[in-house]
Amino acid sequence: MSLAGKNALVTGGSRGIGRAICLRLASMGAHVYVNYVSNSTAAEETLQMILDAGGKADIIGFDVSNAASCQDSIKQMIKDAGSLDILVNNAGITRDGLMARMKEDAWDAVLDTNLKGSFLCSKAAARAMMKKRWGRIVNISSVVGFSGNAGQVNYAAAKAGMQGLTKSMAREFATRNITVNSVAPGFIETDMTNDLSEEIQEKLKQEIPLACLGSAEDVAGAVAYLVSDDAKYVTGQTLHVNGGMYM
């Protein structure tokens, strides 16, 4: 599966799942643009990892929830690169808490980054893709967008909203040869899950038929498939990467 000659933008690409996606797409020949909002050090690390492996990459800093910054940054990126062929909407934050105690700003922050950010980036990227009549958009959703999760009403709502966004965009852009799909990870080994106690991690594994947490590379593999020519007839779909936790 070659992506030679393709330019890919991965939002929230500086670490975790985003970093794994950047590395995977670069290994397939894509020129990857690693987006970050504040952690430039992590973005530089991801960039160096790609370059050390012989790949092509640049870093691009902007806040996906800021319409002007998002539009201007992507417009400039397309001008410099010549095209934007692949967009992976991975940027996301959490502000967990029980609904009865959740403050409005915690709700707004998560919806603005996780859902509105995906809309803004897709809108900016789609213009270039429609002109070229080729594109791949992948939204990184979550198992909790399907199952719900206590203490995450904002995060679950944003991820569930991404499903409607994915299907609607898939219908709108299909005639321009642009596919839009989503990947819904379950519990993945990241900095967030590594901070959990062994007891909590064992409880999580008991909920998963495969009895283990997934890796960021598992998610990256799913994205790699969806942006490749092997998935040219797949659009409006969700690929669940959760070890059987949700079926």
Folded structure, characterized:
48% of the residues lie in helices and 15% in strands. It is an alpha/beta fold and 247 residues long. The chain has a seven-stranded parallel beta sheet, with helices on both faces.
Beta-strand portion reads 15-25%
Spatial strand sequence of the major β-sheet:
3-2-1-4-5-6-7
End-to-end Cα distance: 28 Å
What is the element string, with H for helices and E for strands?
EHEHEHEHEHHEHHHE
What is this structure, in a nutshell?
The chain is an alpha/beta fold. It is 48% helix and 15% strand.
Task: Give a topology summary.
Elements: E1 7-10, H1 16-27, E2 31-36, H2 40-52, E3 56-61, H3 67-81, E4 86-89, H4 104-132, E5 135-140, H5 144-147, H6 153-173, E6 178-185, H7 191-194, H8 198-206, H9 216-227, E7 238-241
Please supply descriptive tags for the structure shown above.
247 residues, alpha/beta, 9 helices, 7 strands
